[in-house]
Amino acid sequence: MHKIFDIAIVGAGPGGIASSVEAVLLGLKNVVVFEKSQNHSDTIRKYFKDNKRVDKDWKGIKVELRGNIHFTDGTKENTLNLFDTLVKNEDIKAYFNEEVYSIEKQEDKLFKITTTKENCFYAKNIVISIGTMGKPNKPSYKIPPTLKQKINFNISQCSQNEKLLIVGGGDSAVEFAYYTANQNRVTLAYRKESFSRVNPTNLHYLFDYVEKGIIDLRLSLDIKKLEDNQGKIEVHFSNGQTELFDRIVYALGGFNPTDFLKRCSVILDENNSAVVDENLRNNQDGIYLAGDIARSNVGGSIALALNHGYIITNHIKNTNRV
Ligand SMILES: Cc1cc2nc3c(=O)[nH]c(=O)nc-3n(C[C@H](O)[C@H](O)[C@H](O)COP(=O)(O)OP(=O)(O)OC[C@H]3O[C@@H](n4cnc5c(N)ncnc54)[C@H](O)[C@@H]3O)c2cc1C
Questions:
Q1: 88, 144, 172, 263: which one has the fewest Cβ atoms less than 10 Å from its Cβ?
Q2: For 73-99, how does the pLDDT look when each residue is reduced to its tens digit (9 = 90+)?
Q3: Given ligand 1 and candidates 50, 52, 57, 58, which is best to mutate, with the most ligand atoms within 8 Å of its CB?
Q4: Ligand 1 neighbourhood includes 168 CB (under 6 angstroms)
Q5: Domains of the chain
C-alpha cells in the first residue's frame, strides 16, 4: 500500500514553501514538497544577482502579509536565509531533484503524481507552485548555434569587462542592466518607445545610470537577426545598424507552462492561464495554484506567493479535505 499524503506541493519557491509551512502550522503534517532543482527557491538563486535588493512590495504592488512568514525588504541572501530556515522544519518532507511530470485524478479521488524519474506518489490535495520562469520567452529569430553560450536568459553567466546587450522592457531587463553595468559596458535595448510596466524605484536607478553614461539606453529599437562574427555576436538592429557584442541577455519574461498544467488536469481559460477562485482553487477537486503560476497574466511577487500558501492551506483545512 502506498503512503497517501494530505497535501502534495509542486515547486519549492516562495509559494511552495509558504504552503508547506502554513500547512504544518495548521496541524496538517502529512505534507510533501517536490522540487526539480537540487535546492529550494531556484528562481531566486538563478535569476537574482548576488546582493540584489529584494522589495516586499515589488513592482509597487502593496501586499499585507496574512500568514506566518515574516518577509520584509532585504537582499537575495537575506531572503534565501529566511527560506533556508523554513525548509529545515522537520515536519516538512521534501524531495529535491524530483521533477513532477504529471498529476492524474483517480477514481478513488486521490491524485497520482508521476515524476520524470517515473516515481509515483499519492495525495488528497495538490498545490502547484511552479512559477513561470521555468521556460523563458525566446526571440523569434534564429540564434546561431555557435553563439548559444553567449546568449543568455538571466545574468548568472555574466562576469566582467564584457560588452553586454540586455534586451527587454520589464523589471527584469532593467534590473539586469543596472546590476551588470558597474562591471561591464551595458546597452539596454527595448522595442517600445517608453517603459510602461517597470516599478518607479527601478526606473529611478536606470535613469540615474543613463544620465551618468553608465548604461546606454536605446528605445524603439528591435533586433532583426544575429550572426556569428569571429566569435562575437553581430546584432542587426531594426534601424539598419549592426554592432558587435560579447554577450546578450534576453529578459522577455516567462510563459505559462501550458503543457505541464494540461498534464496535471488543471482547467485553463481561453488564454491558457489556470482558472482559480478566491481560494486559489482550480476546481472542486483539490487542485490549487500558488504564486506566479496563479497570476500568470498579471504578474506576482514573493509576498503574494506567501499569502497564497496561507489562503490555500486554510481552505484545505476548513473544507476537511484531509
Ligand atoms: C529578476 C527578478 C527580480 C525579482 N525581484 C523581486 C523582488 O524584488 N521582490 C519580489 O517580491 N519579487 C521579485 N521577483 C518575483 C519573484 O521572484 C516571484 O514572484 C516569486 O519567486 C514567485 O514564487 P513562486 O513560488 O510562484 O515561483 P518560483 O519562485 O519561480 O519557484 C518555482 C519553483 O518550482 C520549481 N519547479 C518548477 N517546475 C517544477 C516541476 N515540474 N516539478 C518540481 N519543481 C518544479 C522551480 O525549480 C522553482 O524552485 C523577481 C523576479 C525576477 C525574475
A1: 88
A2: 999 999 999 999 999 988 889 999 999
A3: 58
A4: no
A5: 4-134+254-318 (3.50.50.60), 145-250 (3.50.50.60)
